TrEMBL record:
SUPFAM superfamilies: TNF-like. This is C1QL. Keywords: Coiled coil, Secreted, Signal. InterPro entries: C1q_dom (IPR001073), Cerebellin_Synaptic_Org (IPR050822), Tumour_necrosis_fac-like_dom (IPR008983). Residues 5-32 form a coiled coil. PANTHER family: C1Q DOMAIN-CONTAINING PROTEIN, CEREBELLIN-RELATED. It comes from Mytilus edulis. Residues 103-244 form the C1q domain. One of its GO terms (cellular component) is extracellular region. It is found in: Secreted.
Length: 244
């Protein structure tokens, strides 16, 4: 009888392990599906912005009545040829003198905060920081909360969330589906007084062009209570490149 019970217990443990593995696989698939949905949304937004830009350019062209006269400027080709010969000569002199041609540097940065309080965000949810203060190259989307890495390099990302008494939450900075950094905040007060604090995390990571970086609540611990956002204290997400 004891042997039978041991075998049954072992089978139950094996089944529990299988269930846990399947849960992890489901979480990974959920992450990948969410990223695909967000990417589609961002592409739609980019198309809308491109259409607006094209429309403005066409309107400007019509207003100036310059579209049909672009190639009619006399002497323009001769001037361009002179400028080009000058540039070629300068490059040749630089190479003779051994002066290196400077390599253009690339940079990007963003900073955004929440416009309103976030209540009971729950588990495994991307947080949206919809008020943009800095967004060089428009690499951060205030609609999805995602920063799209524009070029290979080393980046700094920082997170700061204002929470109050009765709040429990764990938060993650994620690159694609991999957690890069995490922070936790738990506030309980037996005195009846309101307590507030900033939960923060800063990371330095290598990233590849096209990677997606965002903030989300923990898949197991999640968040209950308030994430506050007003003039007394912001909840924010920021990042910038430091090496490429």
């Amino acid at each position: 009888m004891a042997s039978l019970l041991r075998k049954q217990n072992e089978r139950i443990r094996n089944l529990e392990n299988i269930v846990n593995i399947q849960k992890e696989e489901i979480n990974v698939l959920t992450d990948e599906f969410s990223i695909v949905k967000i990417q589609n949304h961002e592409k739609e937004y980019e198309i809308v912005k491109m259409k607006e830009t094209i429309s403005k350019l066409l309107q400007k062209c019509n207003d100036q009545k310059a579209c049909n006269s672009v190639d009619t400027n006399e002497g323009k080709d001769d001037k361009m040829a002179i400028v080009e010969r000058h540039n070629i000569g300068k490059r040749q002199l630089d190479s003779v003198d051994g002066t290196p041609t400077p390599t253009p540097t690339r940079s990007t940065a963003f900073y955004a905060h929440m416009s309103q309080n976030e209540i009971n965000a729950g588990k495994h949810r991307t947080l949206i920081f919809d008020v943009i203060k800095t967004n060089i190259n428009n690499d951060y989307s205030p609609f999805s909360g995602i920063f799209t890495v524009p070029f290979d390099g080393v980046y700094v990302f920082t997170l700061s969330l204002r929470i109050e008494t009765g709040t429990n939450g764990a938060f993650e900075i994620v690159k694609n589906a991999d957690v890069q950094g995490s922070a936790i905040g738990v506030i309980h007060s037996d005195s009846g007084h309101d307590i507030q604090l900033q939960v923060s995390e800063t990371i330095v990571i290598s990233a590849t062009k096209g990677d997606k970086v965002f903030v989300r609540t923990h898949s197991q611990y999640g968040h209950t209570g308030y994430i506050l956002a007003d003039g007394n204290g912001r909840s924010m997400f920021a990042g910038w490149s430091i090496l490429n």
